[in-house]
Amino acid sequence: MKRIILYIGLAVASMGLTSVSFGQAAEFVQGAKLSLDKEVHDYGKIKKGADGSCYFTITNTGTEPLTITNATGSCGCTVPSWPKEPIIPGESAKMKVTYATNRVGPINKSVTITSNSVDGKVKMVKIKGEVLKPAPEDGAPVLNKKSPMLN
Predict the structure, then answer these.
(1) Contact 67, 32 (CB under 8 A)
(2) Predicted TM-score (pTM) of this structure
(3) Domains and CATH numbers, the chain
(4) How far is CA 123 from CA 33, 70, 117, 120, 136, in A?
């Protein structure tokens, strides 16, 4: 009886291992495949005029060279700079995205990446955060309703 239970246990365990190995094989992709280290970059709260540059790491997890043909920001304040040379399988490259921080307020922009990736020709990344209003300089008058300058 103990042997039967042991054999059943081994049979079930081997079926589990088989399904795991099939699951790993399903991740293998023929052709170029664009993978990203992150899909959103959060600046948090940054000062007006601060460096608005961030980086996304692009990795080719396919079997053919990955070519990025274009990257477009959702507006003129978001400017991507992408690798122009093909990324060979297993290698990575950085895409720089620069946001113009001279605009005060929330940041919620996107960059559309066009490539020869087999899982879709277009991939989108986002940037978010908030550009803070600058604090008044020391000694500068602050105008409010109780200010003598307004009376």
Answers:
(1) yes
(2) 0.71
(3) 34-132 (2.60.40.10)
(4) 11, 11, 9, 7, 41
